[in-house]
Amino acid sequence: MHNVQSPSTEHRLIITGPTRLERRGWCIRESNAGVHSTPRESRYTMLSANSAESWVEYYASEHECAKANARTTNWTMPSLRSLGVLPPAKVASIGCGNGMDVVALRDFGYEAQGVDMHEVAPPARPWCHIGSGLDLPLVDGEFDAVISLEVIEHVGVDYDGKGSSDRERYAAELMRVVRPGGVIVLATPNRFFPVDEHGSGLLQVRFHSPFRDSTLTFGELRQLFPGCEVGNLGYDGYFMLEKLSRLHIPVSPIHLLLKAFNNRWLHQSAFNPHLFVWFRKAI
Ligand SMILES: C[S@@+](CC[C@H](N)C(=O)[O-])C[C@H]1O[C@@H](n2cnc3c(N)ncnc32)[C@H](O)[C@@H]1O
Asked: How far is the CA of 10 from the centre of ligand 1 (A)?
């Protein structure tokens, strides 16, 4: 396939020395991924994975793959359709994790490819590149849509404050590979809302300052994509709230409550936990 690298040979991970966060039990890895790497790669932080191998193992687990597949069917596909991106459109998933969204999109007739700095799950490998979101191994204007779900909050983060200019470079790369008139779809926690799902414990929630944190607001996202038309997508089909279900907490009222944030103005507010934002590149 055009421009797809072999994951096994091009990928290497550098485990950095212990940092303040690692001493607190976080696992921080700095990745320099393959031929498409850049001197300064983003730092990626994630709980419950103590090495690069266990990270890949966790993300490629049957459970995580099934979740990615379900979310693609229930949220990504309807979202793309609502934006007029129909099969056989070309879609790139940047920071695709296990890559099962790429597989699901292809099953539905999209011409999908993925990029991640870690190895993807075996079924996704023929369609995915191992590479950096800061220097995408993709051709200019090649895609009708680019999706990047739960990624931008991890790009250029030192977790001592806000993100760095790597975010601008990442956004510029997404803009570069989408065609004029094409869309970029992002999902990321809302900085204004002081709780997100990057923590530890039973529910894995993290409390953060709405004023000083590496997550982004709607406005900050918009600034990264100048000149684009912008809008938001809804919650329906995105979260399964399985941790709450396991605790026998009824999830239907929560789903109902989250639906309220499908509204454009509420979506941008401090009451909304998560941002689902699309940008349309000017023609
Ligand atoms: C929280 S996971 C989300 C994965 C997937 N998009 C999903 O929603 O299930 C973030 C992913 O972004 C990838 N990632 C983070 N920074 C990246 C970068 N600079 N370039 C490429 N991938 C990156 C990580 O390897 C990880 O797989």
From this structure: 17
